Amino acid sequence: MTTPQPLQLPGLPSFALASISTFLSGDEILNLRIGNNDIKVMMDDALPMIFSTLLSQDFDYDAAVEKEWVSLRVIPKSAKFSSVFGLNASNALKTCFSAFECWKAWKRAHQRYAGTRDYNMKAPYFLRAARIWARLERWLCSAQDDL
Q: Residue 80 and residue 109: Cα distance in Å, rounded?
């Protein structure tokens, strides 16, 4: 009986890996990177493209509109807030440093707030709602200052 050989993909360009990854889920991509060191090395260059695509596929995230990587700040389950946005608008959004970090944050938010439901959170709706809430909060605070 022979030992199975690891998958060999010599010289595959990063844009090709990014294109192939559109057929995989984020969890499958992470498992692929963990399972094969050669693929991990090749994928490192393609990660920004891969996770930018996954953000779009999984959460309808539009990086061109957002201009930076932003996600919802996930509130611990132990905190008792009635809103998905937490206690106040100042801590509702989180700026991420990469597409991968942003995808992980949206994945965490989906697991925390949507749970096992069959749909993914739609990032544009939540980001818009959080920003409107922040404006309302600032307006209310400024109105109280005028009193």
A: 16
